[in-house]
Amino acid sequence: MSRLFTLRLYTDQSLQSAGQVILLSEQQSHYLLHVMRVSAGEIVATFNGRDGEWLASVQIKGRHQTSLYLIKQNRSQMLTPKLHLFFALLKKDPTDWLITKATELGVSVFHPIITRHTIAERAKIERWQRIVIEAAEQSQRLDIPVIHEPKNLSNIFEEWSVDIPVFCCAEKGDTRTFLSLSSGLSLDPIKIGSAIIIGPEGGFHQDELDWFKKFPFVYPVNLGPRLLRAETAAITAIANWQLCFGDMVLRPTASLDKPPSIGVL
Question: CA dist 27 to 11, 30, 70, Å?
């Protein structure tokens, strides 16, 4: 079977050497055999967030059991920009969409938060973990984002380093653009990174916007003249950050391998 793109599978197992056999879960086996109709001997890629990406041959041991025979390392593990996303809990579909697209755009750590105007359902961490894995598999990422348990807005900076800048997307008040900040803000996205914080439907309460002013590492930013939905604002902010500070302006130096050319999924 000829495929335009090599299938990619995440595993939590160590990937160390050619000839190693990786036993897949029943769910992964079902996906390969019955969804993607993979044949024995077909080449797929696998990664674990630590040991780079490996090409492997599919071995079929039964109707519901498959394994991967590692052939060679295809890409070395690379250091990537550290980007935290604080986002107010939204309803199910907008949150799932936000997490998918933010993973594709390179968010490293997700921090769900509860604000004055939050009206969403409770967090579904287990489902979100599945979503980030699928998005990482499809977007050629070599790492898997971390997802934290929700916190109240007033507690999010309790263990935060003052060296990590936070870009707070605000609908009103004295704000700047990411572009204007990039000309004067010295930022190491690999070693230190930074964060973006997005409010809920309806935006932050004025008391919350005033509270942010207490912290010198918080930079209020705007996303242009249009009023955006919360999930759209998050993706717009991430794209702006990547263009001004992230891997859209940095040439990867942590790996000797040439990174793949990424197109549209």
Answer: 12, 5, 20
CATH number at residue 58: 2.40.240.20
**Which pLDDT does position 100 carry in this prediction?**
98
Tokens of 136: 């990482």
Token couple for 140: 């050629």
Nearby residues of 30 by Cβ (< 8 Å), 6 or more positions away: 64
* pLDDT per position as a tens digit, 141-189: 999 999 999 999 999 999 999 999 999 999 888 999 999 999 888 888 8
Q: By residue range, what is the domain housing residue 231?
A: 83-244
CB 33 within 8 A of CB 63: yes
How many domains, in total, are found in the chain? 2
CA 217 to chain centre: 23
Position 260 confidence tier, pLDDT thresholds 50, 70, 90: very low
